[in-house]
Write a structure and sequence with these properties.
Helix content: 25-40%
CATH topology of the domain at 1-99: Leucine-rich repeat, LRR (right-handed beta-alpha superhelix)
Largest sheet: 14 strands, mixed
Strand content: 5-15%
Radius of gyration: 24 Å
CATH architecture of the domain at 1-99: Alpha-Beta Horseshoe
CATH superfamily of the domain at 1-99: Ribonuclease Inhibitor
CATH class of the domain at 1-99: Alpha Beta
Structural class: alpha/beta
Number of helices: 10
Distance between the termini: 49 Å
C-alpha cells in the first residue's frame, strides 16, 4: 500500500493506500482528490483524530475496503457520507470512533457491504435499515452501549437476509429482554449464523435459555455466553442445545454461576457425542464446579471422542479437591481419543495434554 508522500506518482498496479497515523486534517486530506488516487481499492485512514470529513467531491468508484478506526472526529454526517458515496464498498471499519448513533438510512446505496466493524463505539440503538444490508456476512458491534431495543433491528436482519454468518455483541447493555428478541430472529428458517458472541451481557438465565433454544434449531458453530449471568436454572436449555444442534463445535460458558447441577446435566448430553458430530472446544472456566462436576466430566472423557479442548481454570473448589482430580485423571487415562489431541486446562497458563494420572494429579 502507498503512503501519503507517494501519492504524486503511485504505481499503476497499486491497489492500496496506507494513511494510518498520518496526522491528517481536513485540509491535508484534500490531496486524495488527485485523479490517480481514484482507482485505489483499499484505503486505511485509521488513527487520524483531527479528520472530520471525507475529501470533497471524491467518489472512489473502485473502493472496496475502507478502514477508519480511531478517527474520533467523525460525526454522524461523515458516516452517512461514507454509506452514500462508495457503492462498491464490501469492507468498512469504523471501530473506536466515538460514534453514538448510525444514520437512519444505511442501505440505500451501499448494498453490497459484507463486513462492518463498529466495535468500541458508544452506539445505543440501531436503525431498522440495517436489516437492508442483505449481503452482510460479518457484523461487529462489541463494546458499544447497545440496549434491548437495538435487538429489534438485528432480529429483522435474520428474516431479511440469509448471508449473516458472524455476529459480535460482546460487552453491551443487553438484558434478558433483548436476548428474547434476538432469539426470535435466530429461530427463523433462513438463519445461517455460524458464530454468535454475547460475552459480558447480563442476559441471565431467561435470556440464555432463549438463545440456547434458538441455537438448537439452527446451524450455529460457535456460541459465547461467558459472563452472561447464567446459573444452574439454565441447565436444561444448555443440554438441549448441545444435544440437538449437531453443528455446534465451540461453546464458551465461563465466568458464570454454573454449579454441579448444570455440569451434570450438560455432561449427559456430551457423553453421546462422537467423531465429527459434537462440541470440540468447551470453556467452563470461572464457575462453581466441584467434585461432582469432575466425576460427570470424567464420564464425558471416557465416552466422548469429539471433545478436544476443555477449560476448567478458575474453578478453585474443583482444582483443590483430590476426588475431583482423581476422577478427571481417570477419565483422561481411559479417553478413547489420541492423547496428543486432548488438552485440558485446570490452572491459568497450565495445560494438560494427554496427561497420565501421575502427571495430572501433580499439577
Amino acid at each position: 500500500m502507498h503512503h501519503l508522500n507517494e501519492l504524486a506518482s503511485p504505481s499503476r498496479d497499486s491497489e492500496g493506500l496506507e494513511l494510518e497515523h498520518a496526522n491528517l486534517t481536513d485540509e491535508t486530506v484534500a490531496c486524495l482528490n488527485a485523479e490517480p488516487v481514484h482507482r485505489f481499492k483499499k484505503i486505511d485512514l485509521s488513527a487520524n483524530p483531527q479528520l472530520t470529513t471525507l475529501p470533497s467531491g471524491t467518489k472512489f468508484p473502485a473502493l472496496e475496503w475502507l478502514k477508519a478506526s480511531h478517527c474520533t472526529g467523525y460525526s454522524l454526517t461523515t458516516v452517512a457520507a461514507i454509506f452514500s458515496s462508495y457503492p462498491g464498498l464490501t469492507f468498512l471499519c469504523l471501530a473506536c470512533c466515538g460514534l453514538t448513533a448510525l444514520p437512519e438510512d444505511l442501505s440505500h446505496s451501499t448494498c453490497i457491504l459484507e463486513y462492518l466493524d463498529l466495535h468500541g463505539n458508544k452506539i445505543a440503538n440501531l436503525p431498522y435499515s440495517i436489516a437492508g444490508l442483505s449481503y452482510m456476512k460479518e457484523l461487529n458491534l462489541s463494546g458499544n452501549a447497545l440496549v434491548d431495543s437495538a435487538m429489534i433491528a438485528l432480529a429483522a436482519s435474520f428474516k431479511a437476509s440469509t448471508q449473516l454468518r458472524h455476529l459480535f455483541l460482546a460487552n453491551n447493555l443487553i438484558t434478558e429482554r433483548g436476548a428474547l428478541t434476538l432469539s426470535r430472529g435466530l429461530s427463523t428458517k433462513n438463519n445461517s449464523l455460524r458464530l454468535l458472541v454475547l460475552t459480558g451481557n447480563n442476559v441471565k438465565d431467561d435470556g440464555c435459555a432463549a438463545i440456547l433454544a434458538s441455537v438448537a434449531m439452527c446451524t450455529l458453530h460457535t456460541l459465547r455466553l461467558d459472563a452472561c449471568g447464567m446459573s444452574d436454572d439454565a441447565s436444561r436449555a444448555l443440554a438441549a442445545a448441545v444435544r440437538t444442534n449437531v453443528h455446534l463445535r465451540s461453546l464458551a460458558i465461563g465466568r458464570n454461576q454454573l454449579g454441579n447441577e448444570a455440569i451434570i446435566t450438560l455432561s449427559r448430553a456430551l457423553e453421546d457425542q462422537h467423531g465429527l458430530r459434537g462440541v470440540t472446544d468447551l470453556d467452563l472456566s470461572d464457575n462453581h464446579l466441584g467434585a461432582d462436576s469432575a466425576v460427570a466430566l470424567a464420564a464425558v472423557l471416557l465416552h466422548n471422542s469429539a471433545l478436544l479442548r476443555l477449560n476448567l481454570g478458575g474453578n478453585n473448589l474443583l482444582v483443590n479437591t483430590s476426588r475431583a482430580l482423581i476422577a478427571l485423571a481417570d477419565g483422561i487415562s481411559r479417553n478413547i481419543v489420541d492423547y496428543v489431541s486432548l488438552t485440558i486446562s485446570l490452572l491459568y497458563g497450565q495445560n494438560l495434554v494427554g496427561a497420565s494420572r501421575a502427571q495430572f494429579i501433580g499439577v
